[in-house]
Design goal:
Layout lengths: L7 H24 L4 H4 L14 H9 L2 H32 L5 H11 L4 H14 L6 H5 L6 H12 L3 H9 L4 H10 L3 H16 L3 H6 L8 H12 L3 H36 L1
Helix pairs in contact: 3-14, 4-8, 4-11, 4-13, 8-11, 9-10, 11-14, 13-14
């Protein structure tokens, strides 16, 4: 059996492009520990002369970073939970149940993917004002829980589950909810993980809507709070970089937990299509 040959030119090119893509992140991590002198040093210093954690502490002194962090965690977890629950139940209905006007409703759901959020801002804001939800967690959370993309993603996976499994569960006396939990969800953990990752990333970085519906500084989220830091920090870029690094840590953790399932689900979607 011959030795396995590697395409070294392709490997080197991919390695080079990978380094180019990851270098800005490496630069950000190193810059978060630099002093002001290191940030403005010429020639440019890649490594800090001495690692300092003062930048992180300074961020908490300049803005209410802890409060912004807590608000973002609360709203993101709530939005992701509600969105995934609604997407799972809606996808289950469209994939495995029969009901009147199913095809028409499915076409409406598909068309909703092409409606930009900017078109919905004014009517959504008017509804939130009339409901008295300005400067409330509900005002931030509820208008953003409808996930058309995650619903369509889950429909494509739920449809691939053999109908024989659902029929067998019905024969065994399982109801709709029991079939959803023990058959559909149990066989779709990969796709649900991908939907959770997409929803979490989308809600964590949300900026425009939280900015519109919050006037109270105690309800600001990270995306909005970091804007205040820019004006406070002036040209002290190491403070802004330290805050940005802390703000993306949850995203990195969630991505590392769901990355394998996300890649696998995208691969399976390509194979099915």
């Amino acid at each position: 059996m011959g030795k396995k040959r590697y395409n070294w030119p392709a490997f080197i090119i991919l390695l080079l492009f990978s380094f180019i893509m990851i270098f800005p992140f490496i630069w950000m991590v190193l810059s978060a520990f630099k002093t002001t002198a290191d940030v403005y040093a010429y020639p440019v210093k890649i490594l800090p002369s001495s690692f300092t954690f003062d930048n992180f502490a300074r961020v908490f002194q300049m803005i209410d970073f802890g409060r912004y962090y807590l608000n973002t965690i609360i709203t993101t977890i709530a939005q992701t939970t509600i969105q995934i629950f609604m997407s799972i139940t809606a996808a289950y209905a469209f994939a495995k149940l029969d009901f009147p006007f199913k095809r028409s409703l499915y076409m409406i759901l598909q068309s909703a993917m092409f409606v930009p959020f900017s078109v919905l801002i004014i009517p959504l804001y008017q509804l939130v004002v009339k409901a008295g939800m300005i400067d409330t967690y509900a005002g931030i959370i509820l208008p953003q829980v409808l996930g058309v993309f995650t619903t369509m993603l889950l429909i494509s996976f739920f449809t691939s589950i053999p109908t024989d499994l659902v029929d067998a569960a019905k024969i065994d006396g399982c109801g709709y909810f029991s079939i959803l939990v023990h058959v559909v969800i149990a066989n779709s953990t990969t796709s649900i993980s991908a939907a959770v990752l997409y929803a979490f990333l989308n809600h964590w970085r949300s900026y425009l809507w939280p900015l519109l519906v919050t006037n109270d500084n105690r309800l600001r989220t990270l995306a909005v709070g970091l804007k205040y830091l820019i004006s406070e920090a002036n040209s002290a870029y190491q403070y802004m970089i330290a805050a940005a690094l802390m703000s993306i840590l949850p995203l990195m953790i969630v991505y590392l937990l769901c990355e394998k399932n996300f890649v696998r689900s995208m691969t399976m979607t390509g194979m099915k299509n």
